[in-house]
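From the shared-data thread, chain only:
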Amino acid sequence: MTTETLDNATHGGGDIRFEGAVPILRMFDEAKTKAFYVDLLGFQIDFEHRFEADFPLFMQVSRGGLRLFLSEHNGDGTPGAVVFLYMQGLDAFHAEISARGSRAGIEDGPVAGMRVLQVWDPVSNRLRFAERATAS
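Structure, as tokens:
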């Protein structure tokens, strides 16, 4: 029995495939949240949902295949979460958000061989946009 066969037998077989994760990040101020994710980071709002007009907002933002849920609902995320976001084009993204007023810089990441641009949203959720460093 090969390692792959053993792994499939142990973990449910080869028919199971995960297609990604969508973090739910807490928000408290709709205007500040939209200014950060849409105006600064360049995400688009895919949908907004409230059960009634004065109920908490739940929305999805996306950009380049990345999706995030943002929620005002109690229990949906805790302020101060950290999300590690793998990407390509980190230098271009950095230039873009710098032109919009971001002062974040690119650093060597906590994962070996990664470069990271770290930003904090209005409730201190930390987004780490990361790209594999290329050999010079």
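The beta strands are 24-26, 44-49, 58-63, 66-71, 82-86, 106-108, 114-120, 126-132.
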